[in-house]
Amino acid sequence: MANISETERVQLHVPGLEELRNVLQAGLEKNFAEVQVSVTECPDLTKDPFQFPVKGLCGKPRITDVGGVPYLVPLVQRDKEYNMNTISKEVELPGAFILGAAAAPNRIIGMNAEMMPLVRTEAEGRPAVNSSYVSSINPADGQCLQERYSDEDCNFALLGNLFACEGKPGKVIEVQAKKRTGDNSLVTALRKTLEGHYPDKTLALGGTFIIQKGKAKIHIMPREFSVCPLNSDDEVNKWLKHFEVSAPFICQSVLVSRDPGLDLRVEHSHGFSHHGEGGHYYIDTTPDSVEYLGYFMPAEFVYRIDRPKQTHKVGRE
Ligand code: ZN
């Protein structure tokens, strides 16, 4: 476990869900032909296709940015390992449900890989429930290998962009979007809409969305860390392995409209599937046929944990 020296906390702007609905509806219409944003009861997330360890996204929603890409490139810092149970305490919500995008704990699984965290952290009298996935490069064929990661330790490494809440049912923002007409991914469109409408405030959303139809571009990190320093986006992209994955693909996403000076990664989404594909989501590759269905909650706080002292902007796509 990396020594967490200091956790910074910033309060976020949280508009009412109806106001947010109106803002997101208008913004997404600039990027998709068909858009329906509504305020609705969160579906039961223990059911298909989610199979999360909790029912909903509600109850004290917050996000955290843990570590960062500077611990991965130019060269890996192998001592950077974190634990979801500790993270839940750092974000002042022990027992929280946590989802998002992270790097797998290379020390424990013996390789580098993408992680799709889905963890109900431990609480007094109750052990953690780890429903996470890990996606790596299969050495046999160079293709994607997605596996369940149910280890009770609930560790991850290097970096994580996470949404935490009590996992309760309740009202959420539902986003339906079909046929992409703009250049932005669903996540970038949501983020830029918030940034444009609230230029002097910081808002964050966390949640889950399904690519119901179409295909998407993803990457998976190689099993071995780069031995040569990766000093540019170009060098990082050559090191990463890129794939096209098929629907249905279930992404967990964290986005921040604007960095309030915490050196944040402003959006990060990882996805899994029930057909063996998983990894880091960029954008759909089938704009004419793509269909999205998502559920999001605005976060009340952002926590910056183990912020890199030496930082850079490489590799944050
Ligand atoms: Zn990622």
What does this structure look like?
There is one protein chain. This protein is mostly beta strands. It has one domain (7-305): 2-Layer Sandwich (60s Ribosomal Protein L30, Chain: A). It is built from 5 helices and 20 strands. It has helices at 17-28, 84-90, 106-109, 186-197, 233-239, and strands at residues 7-11, 32-41, 62-67, 81-83, 97-103, 114-116, 118-120, 129-130, 132-137, 144-149, 155-165, 171-180, 204-213, 215-220, 241-246, 249-256, 267-272, 279-284, 291-298, 301-305. Strands 1, 3, 4, 5, 6, 7, 8, 9, 10, 11 and 20 form an 11-stranded mixed beta sheet that branches. It has a 9-stranded antiparallel beta sheet with strand order 2-12-19-13-16-17-18-14-15. A hairpin with a 6-residue loop joins strand 17 and strand 18 (279-284). It is globular and about 50 Å long. The two termini are 26 Å apart. The site of zinc ion has 4 residues, from strand 17.
